[in-house]
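Each record in this resource describes a single protein on a pair of labelled lines. With that in mind, the following record should read easily:

===
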Amino acid sequence: MADILHKLCISAPSDRVYQALATIDGLAGWWTRTTSGESAPGETITFRFGEHANPMRVQTLEPGRRVAWECSAPGWVGTEVTFDLSEEAGRTTLRFGHRKWEEASDFFAHCSTKWATFLLSLREFVETGKGRPFPDDLAI
């Protein structure tokens, strides 16, 4: 098994970062504009990238602390995405994980880089109010 892991510091309180991770409008502001569904434990959020749909079942929502999803998108089936937040002096540390990949393939490496660009979009969105969600994301 292989895991994608990233750590990012954001100049904002954890409750603001949590809102960007736990609400449909927040997610659409930094990951993909075409986000739909219900952000509640046991419910599904669908993230569309052109003709590709990435459904995620919400596992955990802990305000200001944690968001976790189970993936069922092709190529991601059985993987888990986690966002763990900690705050100190009004700044949030985000520890991101996309875990339980079968192997560290070229697709895995591509996804790791794309996650890094989207996490930077998240930081911009939380700090400035404007992210770079798909289709305006950074091309790699």
User: Anything to note?
Assistant: Residues 41 and 134 are 25 Å apart (CA to CA). DSSP finds three helices and seven strands in the chain.
